[in-house]
Amino acid sequence: MTQWKKSIYTGHVSDGVAEVADGRYPLVENRVQAEIMCHVRAMNRPVSRSEITEVLGVSRSKISLEVGRLIGAGLLAGDGLAKSEGGRRSSLLRIPRSAGLIAAVDLGATSTDVALSTLGGELLIHRGEPGDVKDGPQRVLGRVKELLSELLAEQGADARDVVAIGVGVPGPVEHASGVLRSPPIMPGWDGFPIRAAFADGYEAPVFVDNDVNVMALGEHRDGVGKGEDNVLFVKIGTGIGGGIIADGHLQRGSQGCAGDIGHICADPEGPVCSCGNRGCLEAMAAAPAIAAKAERCAKEGLSPILQGVFEERGVLTARDVGEAASRGDYHALQIIKESGRLVGQVLATLVSTLNPSIIVVGGGVANIGHSLLAEIRGAVYRRSLPLATRNLPIVPSELDQIAGVTGASVLAAEGVLQTS
């Protein structure tokens, strides 16, 4: 499928970028080529040379030269002519599928999602299945590679067609190395070389980030956050995390830990968190906390609905709580509201700090009932300054299950198109 010489990934990193053995990484040769490719990707439609010239502020001759080189490399292709504006019609450009494929991986605490997209950003195929990160990196990533091989075969492609791999993981990632550091819910993953794990089957560079960051990238590109420069994405699932888009760019902080809101203290006297501290938001409002509160209600006979499910299965989930609340169960509804209130209180602090233009709420728990989002909104609007919330929508994720793989493909594409 692809036409250019590919590079062999060595597993080393430099300044946050995966190194390659023959120096051919990244795909583009200079800053102007990178900006051209990124603009065409961002527009998600055929783009004219004249538009590129105007947006990038580069001379027409330079744009023509670099576009010609990109076409020669197979990274751009012609797509007809633009509408006439009184003069010579400008030719349209797009990123063809033959430019290569992006492999996207989104690992959750209890799920595994993989997908293939084009370098231009079109999601071609997606598959998700239950999984457990506690099974360890060898088993989990082994299954990921099996799934990717299946998807490639279904698309009539193979590993040689993959130009970059993006991986989202549910733990803190040191951005420069792409390595997890002391992930609270991922035993056996601390320091594991995720990038190198793909080297035996792929020549493509691998880019790794926190799963909430990649979900934020996905919502910003194709979801409800599209077109917004300042987005706060919040994932509520087995854990709780935040992804921050400011001035159109993902904010990772100095070490890659920006947005780790799940370990903000919500109550100094609260339960001990998996991180070892007491009263973290995650320990009090995420899915395991919701399930634990529901089991207490069931054991004490406060909720006949939850009690019945617990007696039948011996365990309850956050989804069970949502279903009980939808049937009018008072205690289930109160559990959901309490989680929403706690999340909202923490978000109110972030609203005062970051002043986002939109807050997007995603993750498995986000779908357990409208009362969760309503309580989050109420807490944010009550505790934030009126100026900060005057035009602040707080909305559910639009991409839902594909936010992670969409963002992982953005992570990989942007990474492979960087020049430094």
General description of the model:
It is a single chain. This protein has 14 helices and 17 strands. It has 420 residues and is an alpha/beta fold. The chain has three domains: 90 residues, Winged helix-like DNA-binding domain superfamily/Winged helix DNA-binding domain (Arc Repressor Mutant, subunit A, Orthogonal Bundle); 133 residues, ATPase, nucleotide binding domain (Nucleotidyltransferase, domain 5), CATH 3.30.420; 172 residues, 2-Layer Sandwich (Nucleotidyltransferase, domain 5), CATH 3.30.420.40. A five-stranded mixed beta sheet has the order 8-7-6-9-12, with helices on both faces. A five-stranded mixed beta sheet has the order 15-14-13-16-17, sandwiched between helices. Strands 3-5-4 form a three-stranded antiparallel beta sheet. It starts with 8 loop residues before the first strand and ends with a helix.
